Fold:
Amino acid sequence: MLVLKFGGTSVGSADAFSQVAHIVAQARTRDPQVVVVTSAMSGVTNTLIAAAQAAAGGQEEGYREARVALLVKHQVVAGQLVADGVERAALGRLFDERLRSFERLCRSIAVLGELTNRGLDVVSGLGERLAAPLLAAVLRSQGVHAEAIDATEVLVTDNSFGAASPLLAETRMHCQERLRPLLERGRGAGPHRVHRRHRAGDSNYPGPRRLGLFGRHLRRGARRR
Structure:
């Protein structure tokens, strides 16, 4: 199994997504069992956190504007790189659903007047939950079999919101159940936090590692025990 991890700069634009897809396609010629871990698109996590913090201060316009801007940001990439109209439409609905959930959460934060660590964990993990399905769709559009796996399906953490640690035994069990069948069929692209990563040519690009396609954060959005 080969695991590749890409940071936010690596998935910061349509060109960057296209380059990542090329890297993954090349990797699959060496090993058919590839897992990809992706970050949120560059700037997305900061936008989400800033909007939630503004909501806690009673500023509601910020999170509404953030929802629209982030929807457009991800749809632009899909529009340029995902050829199938049905798949683009499905992605658009997914983006809209998750961003409207973010807006509802910010509305609750505004009513509460406080951004708790638990709320911050949810907000800060959303970017990967948008990037992972987008990257999987881009890969499929370029002929690479891929499926996005949300980190909440496999990662289990303790209850230390804001500073959670993964529970390795439980997480390993869920990875075996969810990821192994895909890898054995030669498919793998993954989660939301298929959550954050690196571009070839960047100083921080680590090259292929024993990893996979998945989302990056280990604690944001992960299921709790």
Notes: The mean pLDDT is 84. The beta strands are 2-6, 34-38, 156-157, 193-194, 223-224. The longest strand covers residues 2-6.
